[in-house]
Design goal:
Blueprint (H helix, E strand, L loop, with lengths): L18 E2 L2 E2 L86 E9 L3 E4 L2 E5 L2 E7 L1 E9 L4 E9 L4 E7 L2 E9 L3 E4 L2 E5 L6 E4 L1 E9 L4 E9 L4 E7 L2
Parallel strand pairs: 3-9, 10-16
Antiparallel strand pairs: 1-2, 3-6, 4-5, 4-7, 7-8, 10-13, 11-12, 11-14, 14-15
Amino acid sequence: GTGASGTGTSGTGTGASGTGASGAGTSGTGTSGTGTSGTGASGTSGTAGTSGTSGSSGSGAAGSSASGKHGTGGKHGSGGKHGAGGKHGAGGKNGDQGRPPRVVITKVDRQGKIRVDSHPWTNVAIDGTSYGTTPLSPVSLKEGVYSVVLSNRVKGIHLEKKVRVVAGKTVHLRERFRKGFLKVFVKPFGQVFINGKDMGMTPLDSPLDLYEGTHALRVVCKRTGKEKSQTIRIEPGQTHKVILDLR
């Protein structure tokens, strides 16, 4: 509400919180001008400004000053609580610049590849997992050191190698297995088996050519009912001799 002296020509009463028809805020302006020093009788407590309609020079349109609740400096103004620089504004506590940027870290597996060729063909196992037979197309693996096993049971081939996989590169493992020879002498005689395959009765016509590596040898003499088994190792280009007595 506004008193008669609150809206005179000499000034418009302004209270620190007044938002009535007679002006609101420290710099609120009425239609007829702004009083810099006039203080109306109800200026300090005129919080119910909407009901003070009798003042001819004070109007509701001028009742929201720059420093009022909705003014530039007020609660919802550009510098207020919800303004651009306020608590919830772009630069405030909860604004875009009020917290550090979110950083997302994505772990990328660094991978390389292994390709395997061999002669004769072999089964390929990498760290205990079978990947098929040679020729083996490139297999993608995380960088590191792997155990690669090449095997061919029928031909007695078994080779294990450590291979390092480097990210972005392909390791090409090539193996050409060479042969050595085996001579078997048995008393009185015996049937010779290599890796489970029957190779004939002694005396053999010629040395057995076998691929390098370890082989399972078994010799059986049906006459005496005796037999012997052992593991032999063949070196490329060399001849290995086995002499057995099955009498």
